[in-house]
Design brief:
With 284 residues, the chain is mainly beta. Helix content is 6%, strand content 61%. It has one domain (2-20, 67-80, 98-282): Porin (Beta Barrel). It has one helix spanning 2-18, and strands spanning 31-45, 57-71, 75-90, 96-110, 116-126, 131-134, 139-143, 149-161, 165-177, 197-214, 217-228, 235-246, 251-261, 270-282. The strands form two sheets. The protein has a twelve-stranded antiparallel beta barrel with strand order 1-2-3-4-5-8-9-10-11-12-13-14. A two-stranded antiparallel ribbon has the order 6-7. The protein is flat, with a radius of gyration of 21 Å.
């Protein structure tokens, strides 16, 4: 399994490098460049005397994406945040969440007039609402807000090319915080006590590709990996892929395909896929 993950990481990285970007990008304007976009997707299906069968269902998902970038002749400071939450209800079941994510990332890059520049970064990841595992007649809470929560600080060197692709590699410290649910996120099964906080020094790699296919369609893909120095083979890998196509001023369709491998959570690769039609509004 570890070999497969390493090979997959290499293939994705080479693919990023080999993708054809624009031959030359216009220099970015100095000052602040900010974006804040909201979206809402709703789906409803109901049946009455429908002989072919089917289950009544309701689903909704909302999101907020923000980017705040300060561009200076000597440095770049970029903050991105992503908030997603959605629920699904089938027949008489209660609403169950289908998507839940809070992610914040800030990166400071010092410009040295070279292709490769030093950076400092901070990442935060958690969720909004409690998470449950459901059985036939019961449910068990397995997570909640900042339980687990992840904060990662990094320092290293980064590169940006064509205005569409950028990568960074460096040393990082990853902290995992829990309260009521230390297993399997923070607790070390090799010790007799239960740890609620886990601190891991290691290597961090991130690569991001943004491709504007046409005036109304945007593809973005981001690979993030973290390797603990004490357990080099246990590489955490997350790949987020998103394709958004604008149909009109306020309506779009979107497709997301996310891959996660976290040795502490599961020995198998986790996959999440979604396709939606909904409303999108750009605040600024």
């Amino acid at each position: 399994m570890h070999k497969r993950i390493v090979i997959l990481t290499g293939i994705i990285f080479l693919w990023f490098c080999g993708m054809k970007g624009e031959p030359a990008s216009k220099p970015k304007k100095m000052g602040w460049d900010n974006d804040l976009v909201t979206g809402l997707n709703i789906n409803q299906v109901s049946f009455q005397n429908w002989q072919k069968g089917g289950d009544n269902s309701y689903a909704w998902a909302g999101r907020i994406n923000g980017k705040f970038e300060k561009i200076d002749s000597t440095y770049n400071f970029n903050t991105n945040f992503k908030l997603k939450f959605g629920q699904t209800k089938i027949e008489d079941q209660e609403f169950r969440k289908s998507i839940d994510e809070i992610k914040l990332e800030s990166v400071f890059i010092k410009k040295l007039g070279m292709y490769v520049n030093p950076y400092l970064s901070v990442n935060l990841e958690t969720q909004i609402a409690p998470g449950y595992q459901y059985s036939e007649n019961s449910r068990e809470r397995v997570s909640r807000f900042f339980d687990p929560g992840y904060i990662t600080e990094g320092i290293g060197m980064g590169i940006e090319a064509f205005g569409t692709w950028k990568s960074r590699l460096g040393f990082a410290i990853k902290q995992t915080f829990t309260r009521k649910f230390p297993v399997p996120y923070a607790d070390d099964p090799k010790t007799s006590k239960t740890e609620q906080i886990k601190i891991e020094p290691g290597a961090q790699f991130a690569s991001e590709f943004n491709w504007k296919i046409n005036e109304n369609t945007l593809f973005n893909s981001k690979l993030e990996s973290f390797s603990n120095m004490k357990h080099v083979r246990e590489i955490d890998i997350k790949i987020d892929n998103g394709l958004v196509s604008k149909i009109s001023k306020y309506f779009n369709i979107s497709f997301e395909y996310d891959i996660l491998y976290d040795y502490d959570q599961s020995k198998k690769v986790q996959i999440k896929q979604s396709f939606a039609f909904g409303v999108q509004y750009t605040i600024f």
